[in-house]
Specification:
The protein has about 80 residues and is of the alpha+beta class. It has helices spanning about 45-50, 70-75, and strands at about 5-10, 15-20, 25-30, 50-55, 55-60, 75. The chain has two helices and six strands; from the N terminus they run βββαββαβ.
Amino acid sequence: MNPRVKSVQPNKDFTLYLTFDNDERKVFDVKPYLEFGIFKELKDLSLFYSVKPVLGTIQWQNEQDFCPDTLYLESKNI
C-alpha cells in the first residue's frame, strides 16, 4: 500500500503540496483534471482552496476527491 496524505496545501497555480504519512513531501498538479466532470468546479480558486485531508486522501467541499494512490504515484518530489 502506498503512503497516505496527512496534510495538503493548495497553491494559486492549481497545484497541491502534499505531505504523506511517511513524511515524504510532493507536489500534485490538478490542472490536467480541470476540464473534466466534477473537477471543472475547481477552477474557482475559492473552491480549490477548500481542500482538506480526509481519511488518507484529499477532498474539496463539493466532495471532489482523488484516489490516494493516484496522489502518491502521480505527484512529483519536492
